[in-house]
Design brief:
With 284 residues, this protein is an alpha+beta fold. The chain is built from 7 helices and 9 strands; from the N terminus they run E-H-E-E-E-H-E-H-E-E-E-E-H-H-H-H. The protein folds into 2 domains: 197 residues, BirA Bifunctional Protein, domain 2 (2-Layer Sandwich); 68 residues, no CATH class.
């Protein structure tokens, strides 16, 4: 069962965030943060399936080195409240292979960012479901699958032969809410195109459940920190909210089933009444 997820956040120094830390986490590498003067080491990660830096034409080839990229990006930002980059996380469809998902994601990134002069660092995470470690307190809405996903980090500044631009007008312009909808719609369209090409009877939508006419309340994602606590039988606020949403959805489904049962019973009664009326007319 395909699921849709696309989330966009801004990596900002003003929020105490580090672009080097974000890139190290996504890529599973050990990187030096020249702005903070520290090392961010995520090289112990074992779930990185693929990682790649995508550059526009005429960008310095040195930017294909991840350490150089983050060092130059940090150097291009002078202020301690600078917005550094967008961090985009997308769910990858289990229906497609890794190579197919890589190609599809690169197409999405190229159309959204690379073709307009921005660069991007993408990393694909396995997201395997360890059933032996699924906390008993977390019950899935439907059968759980692996959760392969990609992290896409897109600096605000454009890149050309001289490196990062001195201004980031285009990056700031894309903070407008309509761009989020453009990206969400594009990612859904690309996935559905691939499903159709392969004859798969599955589709995704970027719209909310309500907009799709689905009477189910969406559950919130349980992050790694909360899940770690739940794995140790420690109830969390987000876990409690998740469970409460499941209960409400079950109650709604039971109510809808009761309504459907009553409707079916009324239809059967109308059918029996028509048969009796017909038999009565024939008996006369």
């Amino acid at each position: 069962m395909a699921s849709y997820h696309l989330n966009v956040q801004v990596i900002s120094r003003g929020k105490g965030q580090s672009i080097t830390a974000a890139v190290a986490y996504a890529s599973g590498e050990r990187l030096r943060d020249y702005y903070e003067g520290r090392i961010h080491d995520r090289s112990c990660r074992q779930d990185i399936l693929h990682k790649e830096i995508l550059l526009p034409q005429n960008a310095p080839s040195e930017f294909l080195d991840r350490q150089t990229l983050v060092r130059e990006l940090d150097a291009s930002e002078r202020y301690n409240n600078s917005q550094m980059a967008r961090s985009i996380k997308i769910a990858l469809p289990n229906e497609l292979s890794l190579d197919e998902n890589i190609a599809l994601t690169k197409e999405f990134v190229a159309e959204s960012f690379i073709n307009i002069g921005l660069c991007a660092d993408i990393a694909f995470h396995e997201g395997s479901l360890d059933k032996s470690r699924k906390p008993a307190s977390i019950e899935a809405v439907h059968e759980r699958q692996n959760n392969p996903h990609a992290h896409i980090i897109v600096p605000f500044r454009e890149v050309d032969i001289n490196g990062f631009h001195k201004t980031k007008t285009k990056g700031r312009y894309m903070n407008r809410p309509r761009y989020l909808n453009i990206w969400r719609k594009l990612w859904a369209r690309l996935q559905n195109r691939e499903f159709e090409r392969r004859g798969l009877d599955v589709r995704v939508s970027h719209e909310s459940l309500a907009a799709q006419g689905i009477m189910r309340e969406a559950t919130k994602h349980i992050g790694a920190g909360a899940m770690a606590l739940e794995l140790n039988d420690i109830r969390t606020d987000i876990g409690n909210e998740y469970r409460e949403t499941l209960i409400r959805n079950k109650e709604r489904e039971l109510e809808r089933e009761l309504i459907r049962d009553r409707q079916r019973e009324r239809e059967r009664n109308r059918g029996r009444d028509k048969v009796r009326e017909r038999d009565f007319e024939r008996g006369r």
